[in-house]
């Protein structure tokens, strides 16, 4: 008994070793198919490699696909090669990867599979790469599946999921498995379940996987439609014109093609015999009607195809059926896919609305920062400062200069913000003391004077910094965007600007409501004469207010410069929106400025969304809307009480 068991063991081991092969043996067994690879012969080689599942198979397929597989002519063995001079090649064993000798190029033959064969090899390579020990190769396989999904990839992808140890790669495999299952799974129950899962996704990949399932083909037939019909069509309806319907009949050989005038005349010329066409003298064919009669005579004799008449075309359309048919034969699958796509579109629409609201909020925070200084200045002093945009520009250039001395972008921004405030505060005080205070209660002269200052500051910036845009680089932690899903995202820079706007909103509320300066500012705003009688110096308050408004504009310039171009004209891009924000919100009111910025920011983004191809038109519509709004709310959303209200 023991001897018998020993004999069986020896036989089984012998059989195992006899059946064991290396890569060279597999290729030699399929030598003809490898040497003359084609789409018809390549499958046998790939099946043999898959059956053996040898360790070097992925590398072999990669080298073969990239035309790096060589054959020695004298014995037909296959090798990888290395060369320094393109004449003598080092031969690399395809099984061990070790050098095994050298050969002259003339003694070798390079295998060059065509594009079709390379495509098949690439598809087969995926199943080996999915279980490769190297994570980069597994990721490469997943990218290959994403680019060109195929039914043959589903089984190896499923089989590789449980053994996957990398969490990120495993997540990608599961997502891809759901996508492939939805498209290629033979079990309809599993397929429909996968489709219903995709209905909860917003990814582009999910939509791309579902779209082919509901793809349709427009068909014309002489018999009632059969199969998974998407819709029946009636010629002459909005979805199918009579011309398109008849073209379908022609393409399906169900109706004669149109015969054009040129084709008719060519047929008449080809059938001239003894000066006649179908018994009609050629010289009488001097009109369209005569030529039509001659062609009809030829058609009756069978010499040419008959021309299509309106009556014949109408009869052909009435006698045939037209419909769109799904490429997918299962109605349950297409119904599930249609429902999933409808659900996805609804969720995408809601997320786009949310994304649009985020964009509007982001733009509103920028407008608020740009306008809050102007709102304070205008509300307290009644001064229309056309140079307010240039203070924004001065702040942005201050940030640029700071970054020339402090290369650390985080530190440079932290230094630039207070420095920009100080620079523009000082410039604002200087402007108020030297020019503005002499023009109080003279709005036209103030407007013209500040407009002239605006032009002068722009030219000064051009002389110093030139006309080219200067970079104001954001810190690395502000790069990229906060991505909620495939639809909703917002850049970190805009989030930072929004936070900065909230900080200044809170700070200004604190100053105006909780400090002596704020109390004096509110007193001068409401009644300057009464404030003066109470010991408050309106002239000093005007100076500090103008400086504060200018300083905030400088900080806004640093923030805006992080994502917009820094040029001498950048202030002009925001001065109009700043004035609109102040007027719509209510002059001199912080809450009004906040509401005005929110209204204008969301309105502009909404109009741009409805008219994305024409930004100028979108801005025009916004201005028209604001003009109409002011007709009904001339004092803005929150009307100011006191002197400014009376003015």
Topology:
Layout: H1 2-19, H2 23-29, H3 31-35, H4 42-52, H5 57-65, E1 70-72, E2 78-83, E3 88-93, E4 99-104, E5 108-110, H6 115-129, H7 135-147, H8 154-161, H9 167-184, H10 188-198, H11 204-210, E6 216-221, E7 229-233, H12 242-251, H13 261-270, E8 276-277, E9 280-281, H14 288-300, H15 310-318, E10 321-326, H16 331-381, H17 388-405, H18 409-434, H19 443-465, E11 481-483, E12 489-491, H20 492-514, H21 516-526, H22 528-533, H23 538-561, H24 572-585, H25 590-610, H26 615-632, H27 643-646
Antiparallel strand pairs: 1-2, 1-5, 2-3, 3-4, 6-10, 7-10, 8-9, 11-12
Helix pairs in contact: 4-6, 5-6, 6-7, 7-9, 8-9, 9-10, 9-11, 10-16, 13-14, 16-20, 16-23, 16-24, 16-25, 17-18, 17-19, 17-23, 18-23, 20-21, 21-23, 24-25, 25-26
